[in-house]
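A common beginner's mistake is to predict each chain separately and then try to dock the pieces by hand. The better habit, illustrated here, is to supply every component at once so that their relative placement is modeled jointly.
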Amino acid sequence: MATVKLLSDAEIEKIPVAKAVFDDIRASRKSDFVNNFWRGLANDPPALKRTWEQLKAVMGGKTSIDPLTKEMIYIAVSAANACTYCLHSHTAAARAKGMTEEQYAELVAIIGLAGHTNHLVTTMQIPVDREFMVES
Amino acid sequence: MATVKLLSDAEIEKIPVAKAVFDDIRASRKSDFVNNFWRGLANDPPALKRTWEQLKAVMGGKTSIDPLTKEMIYIAVSAANACTYCLHSHTAAARAKGMTEEQYAELVAIIGLAGHTNHLVTTMQIPVDREFMVES
Amino acid sequence: MATVKLLSDAEIEKIPVAKAVFDDIRASRKSDFVNNFWRGLANDPPALKRTWEQLKAVMGGKTSIDPLTKEMIYIAVSAANACTYCLHSHTAAARAKGMTEEQYAELVAIIGLAGHTNHLVTTMQIPVDREFMVES
Amino acid sequence: MATVKLLSDAEIEKIPVAKAVFDDIRASRKSDFVNNFWRGLANDPPALKRTWEQLKAVMGGKTSIDPLTKEMIYIAVSAANACTYCLHSHTAAARAKGMTEEQYAELVAIIGLAGHTNHLVTTMQIPVDREFMVES
Amino acid sequence: MATVKLLSDAEIEKIPVAKAVFDDIRASRKSDFVNNFWRGLANDPPALKRTWEQLKAVMGGKTSIDPLTKEMIYIAVSAANACTYCLHSHTAAARAKGMTEEQYAELVAIIGLAGHTNHLVTTMQIPVDREFMVES
Amino acid sequence: MATVKLLSDAEIEKIPVAKAVFDDIRASRKSDFVNNFWRGLANDPPALKRTWEQLKAVMGGKTSIDPLTKEMIYIAVSAANACTYCLHSHTAAARAKGMTEEQYAELVAIIGLAGHTNHLVTTMQIPVDREFMVES
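With all components supplied together, the output reads:
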């Protein structure tokens, strides 16, 4: 039910830019499985390449936020944006990176609470306290 | 510019339920400062009490997600919900809990990237891969 | 800080279609005050006319939902859409139609709770129970 | 297709906190049916208890907004948040509380109109009229 | 799985207002096919009529934005609102109006990028530059 | 009121990666003015570089969607995401690229209408017609 064709491995083989990205996804993830998101995006090979490189830059590498926390932040944004696919793919990714069911339950609770107070604050249009402002 | 009056300490004094919550906020945070959100919510004392108790249960205590990560998740939800007040208050809270500027820069980048792929996926209506589904 | 000019009464006078709508707004509301929304929309007189007529059809007249409830529903949608202007204008309208502070406090609490459970449900991607489905 | 297991009655039996909530849901609603939302949330028994108690406090009891109006407000928030499950469950609940098809048609029309003017106002960034502001 | 019955042609025949709109949809589109949106909305015949007339006024006629561009703008709004049905129906409509796969790929990329920078800007709460403001 | 410092030209001078991006922004736009978004993002020089390069790739170059249409699509996404800054900056950009007031009025009307039907469709949970589905 996508609005684009999801390209098969045979179709990817014929598009060098897409083939190179798929090879890199497989090598980076040490798995032959490439999920539907990339198969849809492959209809636009330069976008596929740009998006994958950006994802590697932001989500990969040695950084000050650990890989599991990154996935939990991704889930939080995807929940507020009601992105079904993203919730399934990043919840699976978080579990693959070691998220326990206890951590997931807490994540769900924090997202729910944030949704709650976001709605309270927005409805009442609470003005930002001077104490929270950054000098600029 | 709120749609409700923000109650002053003098007004809070006269509402026992609200006074008890404000006392607990001050004791929990070891600070005399109580931010506008609670001053607006205090127009409905039972809601004030319910919300504060829920916040303590979810954000406080010894849990499997550390306090700083919790604030970063809160920021992620608030960004996707475009909640100006929440972004200011929880960014200040995250910094108070030790978030470095490097961590904040990464958080911003992850939220941006998630917003990006959320929009790509939703536009193309990518179907969820069987591999991501949980048995239920 | 609008992206369009907000037309003054003197400017409205020169646009017959807009003038007729403004006259009708004033007559319907029994007040000389015309708020900024209509002054911005007046840059596109046919859109001004279409929107006002639609508003009268939906919000006015004798219907099965009373006028105050309609305003509360409007506030609920505007909160979830983070529409600052709409929240201020429809909260003022609801108060003008008799909303008590007790009712407003309850409205805020329901919106907050709905935001909470919306986020919980979406994060966990709960499937719709067969019992809730309508035959079609 | 949830990201969590939906707990069966047999599984709930083994979790005292969850069992007590399920018993209370059944008693409050005078029905044996417990919908999927609670079965998913039951993976986190304290969250299940907190959420149910909050729901009872906000949606139940003798209050200044009648039970059917509360459900309609819930639907309005859920529509703007694109929460499929919530729309189905609260539309069913509103009908169970007596919502007529005429009232539902009006509710849909108000939500549509609010979505319309929310988008117009936000696009044009209309500034809030001084007349709408509350002294604080 | 709609919350309303989708009316069949036989049912539409019995509702004169709805019948007239369906006839006009068929004549305007030079096709016998009437999609589910109108079949759901037909439960409220005046809303059906209002919505169709508004759609004709905004999307049809000789105007300064061409019909294909209008559909692409519609897709952009629907993506950000996570409206599955709207994405499918307007992507089909855009293709019927000549959108090439190259144009669609670019549209998807722009929507993704806008989602990205929207999230960056909102997270950091960047203040509007004086240079962007319109005199009003 | 940003959550980050907006870097001045003097501060940018001391960060080679940021300086190179600012030089390229000025050269590409043939203007000395660099707006606040880039000054906030410059706190994370690699993100600044990534985002600018992506923007150039998507919004610039010879492509199948003209530059003005691209800005209008950007405005549409930003409206649905309630991104105040983005609405001001891209409306200014669209005008700089020749958007007439007539075109802007039509754009506003389309965004409003899409918001309307998005809300109607989502509230009623209309199922996608088979006719709109793409083979995949």
